[in-house]
Amino acid sequence: SSALKLLTAFPWKSTADSLEKEAAKKRREAKGVYEEMGALDYGNWTSDVLWPLADELARRTGKSPQMFGPAGLGSRVTIALVDDPDKRAYEQESLEIILEEKQALYDDYEVQLARARQEAAIYKANIKKQNDAIRKLEAEAANKESEIEAARKAEEEARRAQELALQRQAQEQSDGGQDSSSSDDSSSGGSSGSSGKSSGYASASSYSGSGGKGQQIASYACQFIGNPYVPGGTSLTEGADCSGFVWRVYQDFGYSVPRTSYSLRSTGTGVSYSEAQPGDVICYAGHVGIYIGNGQIVHASTQRTGIKITHATYKEILSVRRIV
What three-state secondary structure class fits 109? Predict the structure, then answer.
């Protein structure tokens, strides 16, 4: 096909072999063109042959082709690849647009980064503020716990001191009663047998001269503080449960009361807690105790704590019963 193109381009007569050789030579020369020089020299080529090659080179290089010299036989034709001003301006404008877009994107990244840093600083400050508040609350809670623990210990010490004082008072009354009458000692012995008491505890009759009957009952009951709680028990010394404790104390004074906490809630006369007096029975859900005054009761509490003094309102009061 190359030979036929050359044959139509050159008007003189020649053999096909010589034309083919000439075409191969021109192809080799075209491959050796130095594009850096800005011009391509294809001697003895006609414009009909060179233009397609020039267009192809222009397409590959991005430059516009221009041909110089006559296009006749035996001429020396020069193809110059020159810059296209319009194309160059378009490319420059495109590059500037791309640069502006990239710059805007970069600026936007800078703005986002600055905003992110600002938000991070605010978040960090808020975290520090919250941590300071948490530490402050923890310190306040620790102080409150310390205050509560100190109050609890003080209350426990006061309760123990009161229990010891009541025990000493009961012992003193017991000693006075035993010295005053031998008949009381005999009565005490009989009562002790029924109560399970050992020597050293005052009898109920020894309290006959100390205040009203209710106060006598309360004082008598307090001498058993510290003795054990025993489920189902009725012994003031060996152990009793809550209703067994109340039942035995009142029986020692000659009063017959129910044996269960449920039944004790309906015995005697009901009064309000504000009217409670020493010796009254304070009834709770499943539990009872004897009021001793000053907002306190003596009761057989639990197997762990035994017979002890507790605030009367330590849990909801269902009924206050007056027996004497």
Answer: helix
